[in-house]
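The instructor's notes for this session suggest beginning with a concrete chain rather than abstract definitions. Hand out the sequence below and ask the class to guess, before any prediction is shown, which regions might be ordered.
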Amino acid sequence: MITSRTKSVSKANIFLTCTEEKYYSNDLVVDKNTLIRMISGEMKIILPDITYILGAGDTIFFPRNELARVMKSSKDGHPYKSVAIYLTPEAVQHYFLKHQLKPSLSKEKPGIKVMDPHPLLDSLFVSLLPYFDMKNELPDSLAEAKVDEAISILKLTNPNLFDTLSHFEEPGKINLTEFMEKNFMFNMPMDKFSYLTGRSLTTFKRDFKKSFNVTPQKWLTQKRLELAHYQIKQKRRKPVDVYLEVGFENLSHFSYAFKKQFGYAPSTIAEPA
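After discussion, reveal the predicted structure:
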């Protein structure tokens, strides 16, 4: 992870984030559904099968328990800045009770979704910005009203996405091999991997050893190095552009591990033409 000075101003479940550094990267998994509007700068969200690049005016829905690599950077001389609304399980349950709605029976897991432009989304986020200039905390009643407004907008503009908000259960036990093969590049603590596969840490390590016949950390390092080697050798990419994407935190550690694994430094592979 690249260290960044990030200022977050909270108004209950509404946050304004401004990243002062030119570049920031982190792997994360959030524990609540989140609606994010980009104000300035750029955000790149890297998933195993797709990458999203968002700029000013874009809105994205980030579901709970979704693994992703998030890269934030300045753009056109403006810092990264965004407003996020947390749609907590408690807020969603309160909304369903207040409006006498029944949770969806569908078990479809939502993915990250870039929202289509809509005047209601524009109005919602424009109305939030003045609150961050207040010296006092936003009254709970106003904050709750804004969260309810966000949920209502999702219900109107994206019914399928709205239905998934009512999934309050914790992750169930899933196929460990398939999950790890898909998500090995994310630099997560082992307890996060175990949680997302529906296991205790002890059970996760035991099941992992049965599946791969090696410890999780050793397997993760090898898989990440193999992916890096492919990216540098076959895709003709530079090591400095690869190491974060494959799950390493700094270039020197990546270069050391790469040389130990393959017998030569990544910089010795032919540079891109």
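Then share the key points. The chain has two domains: 6-164, 176-268. The longest helix spans residues 140-157.
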